[in-house]
């Protein structure tokens, strides 16, 4: 943990790297697009800064054809916040629907773009969990009720959560005799490396939403990568709410649950 913090502080230690994070907070960028923000800096230097940010786990890179798309990963910043600030603050995370982002609203085109069908957003996060991949996968699937805090059941009514990690399986919440809600449907499983689901995750209406967990082994630990894409009639605030919701679920609740080996 201390080594991770040293790398994180190193990554934050240069003003250009902090500016890069400010830019990526607004929307993902290719390396070439980032270079355009710094006309006095060589492309090689920008690539070195990005490499340092990747080492600090502050930037997640996804490839799209020949381009490298750089995404801000907010998880390490949340972990740092939790260590020195979070315990002095009362959590406001009551549900995925009422979470309000502490991040500024996306400006300009931002990460939320407009298509003929509506809006699109994409969330990329990564968290390192000090546990074997099999244990993390089991927590994501068989043990999801033990750490997934959010509920769609009416306030005050207890509910149960289950996730069947097989193609066609349901991630479902049930309450009462016949009431319930589907959080997701499993459409791809390669245990313990990857699982993909379709699901609205609290959004309503004409929305197409899917999310993927990828688990990568790293020296006895597991790098959990989340990709969540939604398109359609996306209301203002949903992207930020889900960004904060995933951050709370994965970097706080799941990480603590697995590392404490409950």
UniProtKB/TrEMBL annotation:
InterPro entries assigned to the protein according to its UniProt record, in alphabetical order: ArsR-like_HTH, ASHA1/2-like_C, HTH_ArsR_DNA-bd_dom, HTH_MetalResp_TranReg, START-like_dom_sf, WH-like_DNA-bd_sf, WH_DNA-bd_sf
GO molecular function list: DNA binding; DNA-binding transcription factor activity
Transcription regulation listed as a keyword: yes
Domain (HTH arsR-type): residue spans on this chain: 7-82
SUPFAM superfamilies (UniProt xref): Bet v1-like (SSF55961), Winged helix' DNA-binding domain (SSF46785)
Stored Pfam families: AHSA1 (PF08327)
Keywords attached to this entry: DNA-binding, Transcription, Transcription regulation
SMART domains to which the protein is assigned, alphabetical: HTH_ARSR
Family to which the UniProt record says this protein belongs: Belongs to the AHA1 family.
Full protein name: SRPBCC domain-containing protein
Protein's organism: Metabacillus arenae
């Amino acid at each position: 943990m201390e080594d991770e913090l040293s790398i994180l502080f190193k990554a934050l230690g240069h003003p250009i790297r902090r500016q890069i994070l400010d830019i990526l907070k607004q929307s993902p960028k290719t390396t070439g697009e980032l270079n355009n923000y710094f006309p006095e800096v060589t492309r090689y230097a920008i690539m070195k800064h990005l490499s340092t940010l990747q080492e600090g786990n502050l930037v997640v890179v996804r490839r799209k054809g020949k381009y490298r798309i750089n995404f801000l990963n907010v998880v390490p910043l949340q972990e740092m916040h939790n260590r020195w600030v979070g315990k002095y603050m009362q959590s406001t995370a009551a549900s995925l629907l009422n979470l309000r982002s502490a991040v500024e609203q996306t400006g300009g085109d931002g990460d939320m773009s407009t298509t003929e069908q509506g809006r699109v957003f994409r969330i990329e996060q990564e968290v390192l969990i000090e546990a074997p991949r099999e244990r993390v996968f089991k927590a994501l699937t068989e043990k999801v009720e033990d750490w997934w805090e959010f509920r769609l059941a009416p306030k005050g009514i207890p509910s149960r959560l289950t996730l069947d990690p097989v193609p066609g399986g349901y991630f479902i919440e049930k309450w009462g005799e016949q009431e319930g809600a589907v959080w997701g449907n499993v459409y791809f499983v390669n245990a313990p490396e990857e699982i993909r689901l379709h699901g609205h995750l609290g959004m309503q209406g004409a929305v197409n939403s899917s999310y993927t967990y990828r688990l990568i082994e790293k020296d006895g630990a597991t790098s959990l990568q989340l990709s969540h894409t939604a398109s359609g009639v996306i209301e203002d605030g949903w992207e930020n709410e889900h960004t904060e919701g995933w951050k709370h679920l994965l970097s706080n609740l799941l990480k603590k649950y697995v590392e404490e080996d409950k």
